[in-house]
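note to self: the first set is below, dont mix up w the second
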Amino acid sequence: MSKEKRILFVVMPWHSLHLPSLASGLLIELTRNGAPAWRAEALYANILWAEYLETATGGRIPPDKYTLLGEDFFFQATGEWIFSSALYGVSQYQVDRYRDAFQGDAASFELALEAQSHAPGFIDQMAQRIAQMDVDVIGLSSVFQQNIPCLALARRLKEIRPALITIMGGANCDGVQGPALHRNFPCLDFVISGEADYSYLQFLRHVDGEIPAEDVAGLSWRRGDGHTASNPPGPLPQGEDFVVPMHDHYFDQIQASPMNRHIEPNIVAESARGCWWGQKHHCTFCGLNGMGMSFRSKPADQFMAEIEYLVRRHRSLDVVLADNILEMSYLKTFIPEMSAKNWDVRLHYEIKGNLNRAQLTALRDAGVWHIQPGIESLSTNVLRLMRKGITGPQNVRLLRECEELNLTTTWNILAGFPGETDQDYRAVQHQIPALAHLQPPSGATRLALERFSPFFDDLSLGFVERRPALPYAIAYGLPEAELMDIVYIFDDGKYGVADDVIDDMQAAVVSWKDAYLRGSTLTWSESRDGILIEDRRHGWPPRDHMLASRLERNLHALLDRPMKRQDLAQRAAAMGEGRGVVDALVGDWLDKGLVFEDAGVVIALATRPIPFRLRLAA
């Protein structure tokens, strides 16, 4: 009887401490279903790194600082740079150059520097531990800032146990990135590019000697002369073929870890891949999906059964969906069924921002309590430059509806689009105080040039002098020609508005956050005398506004949804009122912060009374 082979998936920093790895969970389940001669397991080195850092620094770098270094400074490549010392076998790497390039505060840089000094010791400890395990293959999935940590571990493992097979995949290996990583880092025996549901099982068959490397879709491998060969990708898996991820190793490791006092574990699942909006109108700045933009979703009944299985198995009520966008047919299938179940499950979903109140209500009733709607801007012109297919007032309406429905939203403001103007931002900034009662963005930042985005692929859109982002160039230390095929973030000058405009918008966002957390409200209700609007927003005098006339009541009702001024005037004309009266009334409401206007489209801001609203700091 032949010996059972083992593959160990090592989840490296800076994967979130609060989530299992979807990639590892899927591949472990694929192994169980499709490769009976193999046993697959996962080791969460990210959790071990959090433990190591807290202990080695005497508590100076606790788990919340792990999140700061590895996630909050993504565009600074801080997580990558921290592990560059381990990759290149030194105690410190490019400290002065990285300090000069770092755009965070001095305290955060010192934390990163201290973490870097501990990275080589951690990688050596991990490699020694894994080398002693009875495994045949090490699988590394790399997303965002996991590249250099993965490479550092693979390099050290090859020094200790050269015969151990290493393979890396994940979003950081899409397109030309996979072959480039393979040819620059001999510690990687193989790299898989693209979604690996099919090619992973082909790879195991190759290791078993059943098929040649040439037959594994998307695989980069070495010919006899040592040069990299790369196979074309295979077909994309379809929704009905997506398996249920196996997360047992994550939950077992969390339970046994001293980190469990800091971590509230969530379940991660997927109901779809790709983006149906991106298939039609790829947002100009978005580099997500890479080789897998084609939208595919699971049958609703299949996904319903999966949610029930995962929640019962792992005893966690928070389920984070990895989907880039909600499958719209789910609003008639999965969402109503979830609502009928009346489970105490909290779902986190990414949606498109033009859902109406009835659809948002259905999401809330189904247990969706957190959404990421991709708002990105409140300026219609900037949204047009993004190809968002939505307007600023529509986004404001979404924020208003979410406030009423107790739906928590995560969003940010992006700037730096060729063709935008100062006025696009000044007009919104001027009205931000009126939005004090609505959920603020996390911040206002200049966009980054991302690989796979239309801005990256189409020079005619304005970004013409791209080069690897400086922090990544420092962390990798490779020739620029190679980095052009490896990194995800690029520098290309500054387009659109100047930095001072973005800085002013960021300052306005900070004030918005403060006002919101102070309990600002702007509510309306009907009374015998008309519509009563009660203004209790921070920064505004406490006032009650009574809309008593027929025109006021009717126009306010119309402005429940975005309306052009000329359309309002037409409605008013039917009541015998002229355009001048409408303009005067809308102007008065703008002065009082009762409406928001952009590009001649107006939306009312007051919410229905909210019995209770828990407001969390962003």
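second set (the one i keep forgetting abt)
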Amino acid sequence: MTARHLTVRGRRYPLVLPNIRDPRLHVAAVIISVHVLGQVALHFHVSVPQILAAMAASAVLEVALTFRQSRTIVWPASAMLTGSGVALILRVVGTPADQPWFTGSWELYAVVGGLSLLTKYVIRYRGSHVFNPSNIGLVAAFVLLGSSRVQPLDFWWAPLNPAMIAAYVVILGGGLLITRRLHLLELAGSFWVAFAAGLGLLSISGHCMTANWAFAPVCGSDFWRTVVFSPEVMVFLFFMITDPKTVPTGRVGRIAFGVILALVATLLIAPQTDEFGTKVALLSSLVIMCAGRYLLERFVPQTSSTADTPGRFARRLLGGPHATPARPVAFLRVGSAGALVLAVGLAIVLAGLPARGVPIGSNVLAIEPSEIDPSTLPPIALAPDVTDFDHELAGAGIQAVVVTLAQNLELENQALLKRDPTILPTVDHGARLDEMRSRVASAVATGSVVISHYRFESIAAALLVPFGEQTGLSLGLAAQGTLTEETYDGAGTLVTSSERPFHATFAVRRATGARWLNVAVLP
């Protein structure tokens, strides 16, 4: 740091300005570069005023607190890093993408950024803060406010386009350089390897989660690949878990910290069924490990110890203090280590039972609706975001989706006419499934039922990205045409029939597997 003085009302105060060699400035440069990419190319749901509010609140608080403690005006490098980290991860429901000057909810960012910074001064032990400030602030925000108000940054940001490649280069390049300089590369590497192994076991067992960026549940190898190589996980391992003040000081301690953190994260992620829970579980694992850091340090060598090398520590574990352990002792300890690994693996598999796959509805598609002739469908207009997201939806792909929609609507009619709700889970999901079950129950109670036949004259497809609970990306099919409504009595006799024009958006999603299901009909 470069020390100068600032005169205020005739009194001189020491002034500490940033130093170009300060690693905190390098971390800030990486995070701000990601923010810039998010604003100009990656369509992040966060605005410049929101980012600045989090950074400014943190900075003002740190300047005030350090001045009160030392009567020195210090450049708030750590605070601005905390604020920018909060703004990178935090998303407020209702914030639009591609509106960089949107001013809504800026105060929430200021509150979360400021309170995150305060934890650094309030929660302390042995003269240092216990938790990574942005990490504990984000976890508190997600737990207290819930998924209806806030959500974390997605694991998946965009297809592998030039902007996404640039983001990976910035994160990986900056992360590797900074962690190597701070002697934290072993910590980051041990976490990532153990995390990949733990999630691999979880994926093999059939784990699934829903996400805002996927039409279908993300399962198995897709789940593993998406999360392990997520740019958000890279930010977590390079710039959140590697706070030098909140991790053990020795090499062995840092490697152990990374491995145990990965196992805790995997165990917390295992029962989660959506991306909100998965991401909060990942962030919460660091809160738990920071709280347990001092207990861990009792069992690992300190920095000044000659045993603070992974090889020596491993030999000590296998045979006690002797360099060459007795063979029976070594076998016993190797066996104990193997049993521990098996126990952890079993715990991961058992913890993942709530998210083990997504059951597909019973095969009631044997009750085929009337055949839908694709040649009778009108031309389908595709919004650019649809083909950018999934090129397979171009041409015949989107036509197949519309055919499935038409089949689903006819099967809904059959469920109403037969008063049979067991048909519905194969064609409907979420709000639409609840609505149709209610209509079937009403038909059973009253004996009268109204069914709808749609004749499409125009269709336009676009992505529907939900806010709030991360229940999955949907495809919106905005259609116009003619709606024929038929009323039948309890005996199945047609009572009345009428026609009228309609204009509605049919939301469809692969909520339980490969088949597109109706999830909503919107005005």
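remember for set 2: The longest strand covers residues 449-464.
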